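Fold it.
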Amino acid sequence: MIVNSMYNSKWSLMKDQYLQLQDSVDYIQWKEPALLVKCLLNYFKYHIDEVELLFNVLRCFTYRYIVQFQFVKDYLEKTVAATYTIDWKRNSFFKFVDLFHDPSWSQDLKSKILQYVIIPCCQHAFESGDGEKLIGGPPTPDQDSQENVISVFINRIIDPDKPFGTSDAVRILLLQLSSLLVEQASSHIHDANNK
């Protein structure tokens, strides 16, 4: 949590300075956001249970910077989605669900979390045959469970009463995640034998 607090205050300060001095920034200051992200990513590699820190690192994609953050995308794709455990992927999903309705997390950041962490982790789990472990057990579409990813997704994220309660980017990514779940785990959503 201390690292998250330091990160948030430093990131806000850098963003404000960057926006104010955009036309007259020295080259070394252009690199500052990437250096900060590299430091935080390196810290995260040794403290992978601090999922919220990883989510905060994704702020680098919510502003325009001269430096590139391809190394973050590569790390998320090749390390996080491909090698992290199913338990970590489940925990990151549930952490995202907890912060989804928190207004202090911007819609833009929520879309980046879905785009770069949640969807790739789920997709990799399904492709590697770990879909049932990711979801949290065998299909029980008629029962709600706080341990079942699909049940939690439907009950806590999807809100049919407020279909426009999120930004377009978040809605599109939620639809992508929904499509992935329907394609890969339809038996967890609806029992075809129960008509």
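The mean pLDDT is 84.
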